[in-house]
Amino acid sequence: MKKYIVETYYTCTFKTVHNLNDLNDQELNKVDQRTDGKVEVIDVKLNNRKTRKIGIDKDEINKTKNEKSISNKISNNFENQIKSQKSESLNNFKIKNNARFKMPDRRKGYIQKSQIGDHKVYLHTGEYDDGKIGEIFIDTNKEGELVKAMMNNFAIAISLGLQYGVPLEEYVDAFIDTKFEPSGNVIGNDRILSASSILDYIFRELAISYQNREDLAHTPSIGESELNNDDQTSEDQNKFLKIVKDITSKGFVRNNYKKNLVDLSDIKISLKGKK
Fold first, then answer.
1. Mean pLDDT per 10-residue run, the chain (275 residues)?
2. What angle, rounded to 10 degrees, do the helices at 198-211 and 168-175 form?
3. Which whole-number Å values give the CA distances from 206 to 7, 177, 251, in the listed order?
4. Using the 8-state DSSP alphabet, how is residue 39 labeled?
5. Are both 89 and 122 inside the same structural domain?
6. Residue 176 main-chain phi, psi, to 5 deg
7. N- to C-terminal Cα distance for the chain?
8. pTM: predicted TM-score of the whole model, two decimal places
9. What angle do CA 154, 200, 172 make, to 5 degrees?
10. Nearest to 200 by CA among 220, 216, 187
11. What are residue 250's DSSP bridge partners?
């Protein structure tokens, strides 16, 4: 038993040829009614082809149409929701990226003096209240006005990037191991013994002080093993340590408050005496 019907539609171009005894309007009007003309097929083209099931019910046709319309509506709504969510996320991303977190008027930080070859370098840092670095300044000697101006503006550009949310590690990865003069042995820094350039030294110092990048240091951290063994601290010491963190530069103590604050117990006693 046959189950399907295939309907094929063609477009046919043909002509009819009639012989007339006289050429006038009356004869031309009668041409369409004459049956003695010769028919010649010029072209046949496939126009369309449809298939349907034999004995298909109209209810099934309506059901399939309704299902298709419902699925189309659901897909359209889903696409609209995705587009709206993408636009909202893009707007939020732009707002976050355009937000600059300015430094407080009175801020913490430290100054590191070092000597690379015959050139002295002074690195100044500024920190937010939570200890995160937000600005740097670079001073050098034995350099011309052009080089000093370039270094100052370079420091301003780095500071603006930090305040707009650029992670410090991005700068560290970009400028570590850059090579240009002055370079050589470093004097005045207990963690860095040599540098291939001023930028290599600066971002190596910042990475060690603010990110605990011990892999970039040339000397081990003093007292690190002793600190790891002393895991037990009293509640009073933790409270006092929190106060010290609020008033001490994170970069100056290289993110290690316990190691650099010598005797917390004596300071705690003196504070109690003042009360």
1. 78 84 80 82 81 66 69 72 67 60 88 89 90 90 82 92 91 91 89 90 91 84 49 59 64 59 46 46
2. 150
3. 79, 14, 8
4. E
5. no
6. -65, 140
7. 105
8. 0.53
9. 75
10. 216
11. none
